[in-house]
Design goal:
By secondary structure, the chain is an alpha+beta fold. The chain has 5 domains: 89 residues, no CATH class; 165 residues, Transferase(Phosphotransferase) domain 1 (Transferase(Phosphotransferase), domain 1, Orthogonal Bundle); 38 residues; 136 residues, no CATH class; 54 residues. The chain is built from 25 helices and 11 strands. Strands 1, 2, 3, 4 and 6 form a 5-stranded antiparallel beta sheet that branches. The chain has a 4-stranded mixed beta sheet with strand order 5-10-9-7. Strand 2 and strand 3 form a beta hairpin. The chain is extended. The two termini are 66 Å apart. Pathway: Cofactor biosynthesis; ubiquinone biosynthesis [regulation]. GO terms for molecular function: ATP binding; protein kinase activity. Belongs to the ABC1 family. UbiB subfamily. Pfam families: ABC1. This is Probable protein kinase UbiB.
Length: 540
């Protein structure tokens, strides 16, 4: 694995040199002297280089494309954060969402036929060889079933696993080195985060898992005005091929078309936030890859816009404890109740139990209070997270790996919402939903449901209590029993020993009777031997 990582490092270095990504760093103004001096350690910068006609955004996009799916997904995430990137770079990175160069259509057809066990013409009445869209992991072809339904056929790119394995090997090496070198890095659990991402990316290569996720998400939003999920045709789904309903909508980033059809942009942005919180708190099952390339807007009712979600390869879920913790933290944070935020962090185990609440509260207030000097609509959740993580150095705050997907999804939704409607007040949109969720969670109906669940467990608990009492009263009752044959052998051995003791006792008793009385002290060993021998012979 280390050899693969070294090979991949040289590949990354070649791409960096080819697309001059180092220029993106060194062209930045006011670089620290130690960072600017790194250019002296790069031999390729000692030689004259021809000027390039590519813009910096195009160079970054092409480099990420060349490096493979992991880097493409990183670019997709960056493209949603226009508040963090220059416009020219963000525009180029948006092309990574659904315009990655496709692979050979002949390979796609051959793979589909191998997976389905039949010719494409036997399964579909029409199959478009030219791909409809292409992304980092798969590409999509339009088709029509024999029964007349319009569908899309998704097929996984060939040869992805070796490239992904090399990238992950390198990421693991970096994560392990960071944990060994830095206490701050250890608090972020980089190895666990990379491990979770490894599971996520490999799960994304299994299209049957994506089909199952899509079916679940479709059931969760059945009949909803918020979001629509296409139907999956299970009979035609395989590990590397997915067939689902073709949807017709406007890409969520196509602002011109949305404006032409007079889409209510404010309502669209607010519904995006509601979709996120509904998935997280109502269903505990959320689409964790909601970048603009996977989100469309229905053209049916522009005055009441509905989202259409595709590509459910990455999903996340939260426990009831995580849900409760997140909701309480959000409420406390936006009420500026920093003491409650500190207590929740301690209670949840994010910071050590011996942490002084007042000191932690003061640190949170110091980093978060400046944020609230702005209007709520200008507050970035990404900025809030970064500010909170600044307290980690002093209080050993740990990042929970199971929440990384949630944080990523929240950043996607925030970036998308502000792109659709820049004046979006994220908190005003989310607060009513969270309040309703908290009321429902502690409503009499929910309490009765919890009691009912506990009552259902009573027979099981009763049996456990009875078993425990039996074990305490008879501690050796359930000890392993000896085999019957062995027990019979032991009985005969003891009887033989008893016969020997009887014989020996009789001999001693006869000697004692001749020498003195049987009641004399010298006769007591004979009596003991006789008694022990008799006991061993007559015992069960």
């Amino acid at each position: 694995m280390k050899l693969l990582a070294v090979r991949r490092l040289f590949r990354i270095q070649r791409v960096v040199i080819r697309y001059r990504l180092d220029d993106l760093l060194f062209d930045q103004p006011l670089l620290p002297w130690w960072l600017a001096s790194l250019r002296l350690l790069m031999p390729w910068r000692w030689l004259p280089r021809k000027p390039t006609e590519l813009s910096r955004g195009a160079r970054l996009r092409l480099a990420l494309q060349d490096l493979g799916p992991i880097f493409i997904k990183f670019g997709q995430l960056l493209s949603t954060r226009r508040d963090l990137l220059p416009t020219d770079i963000a525009d180029e990175l948006m092309l990574l969402q659904d315009r990655v160069p496709p692979f050979d259509p002949k390979q796609a057809v051959a793979l589909i036929e191998a997976q389905l066990g039949a010719k494409v013409g036997e399964v579909f009445s029409r199959f478009d060889v030219e791909p409809l869209a292409s992304a980092s992991v798969a590409q999509v072809h339009a088709a029509r079933l024999k029964t007349g339904e319009e569908v899309v056929v998704k097929v996984v790119r060939p040869g992805l696993k070796p490239v992904i394995a090399q990238d992950l090997a390198w990421l693991f090496l970096i994560a392990k080195a960071a944990e060994r070198a830095s206490a701050d890095a250890r608090r972020l659990h980089p190895v666990e985060i990379v491990g979770d991402y490894e599971k996520t990316i490999y799960d994304e290569l299994d299209l049957l898992r994506e089909a199952a996720n899509a079916s679940q998400l479709r059931r969760n939003f059945e009949g909803s005005e918020l979001m629509y999920v296409p139907q999956v045709y299970w009979d035609l789904c395989r590990p590397k091929v997915l067939v689902m309903e073709r949807i017709y909508g406007v890409p969520v980033t196509d602002m011109a078309t949305l404006a032409d059809q007079r889409t209510d942009m404010k309502l669209l942005a607010e519904r995006g936030v509601e979709v996120f919180f509904t998935q997280v708190f109502r269903d505990s099952f959320f689409h964790a890859d909601m970048h603009p390339g996977n989100i469309f807007v229905s053209t049916v009712k522009p005055w009441s816009p509905q989202y259409i979600a595709i590509d459910c390869g990455i999903v996340g879920s939260l426990t009831a404890e995580d849900q409760d913790y997140l909701a309480r933290n959000l409420f406390a944070f936006f009420k500026r109740d920093y003491r409650r935020v500190a207590e929740l962090h301690i209670d949840s185990g994010w910071v050590p139990a011996h942490t002084k609440v007042n000191e932690f509260e003061a640190a949170i207030r110091t980093v978060c209070e400046p944020i609230f000097e702005k209007p709520l609509k200008d507050i970035s959740f990404g900025q809030v997270l970064m500010r909170l993580f600044q307290t980690a150095r002093r209080f050993n705050m740990e990042v929970q790996p199971q929440l990384v997907l949630l944080q990523k999804t929240l950043l996607n939704i925030e970036g998308l919402g502000r792109q659709l409607y820049p004046d979006l007040d994220l908190w005003s949109t989310a607060k009513p939903y969270l309040e309703r969720w908290m009321r429902d969670r502690y409503s009499p109906k929910a309490v009765l449901g919890n009691i009912h669940g506990q009552v259902e467990q009573l027979p099981h608990l009763t049996n456990m209590a009875r078993d425990l009492l039996e074990r305490l009263s008879q501690p050796h009752l359930h000890d392993p029993q000896m085999p019957e044959r062995r027990r019979q052998g032991d009985r005969w051995a003891l009887r033989l020993l008893g016969a020997g003791l009887l014989s020996g006792g009789a001999v001693l008793a006869a000697g004692a009777a001749e020498a003195a009385s049987l009641a004399a002290p010298a006769a007591w060993p004979a009596w003991l031997m006789l008694a022990a021998g008799l006991y061993l012979i007559v015992r069960q």
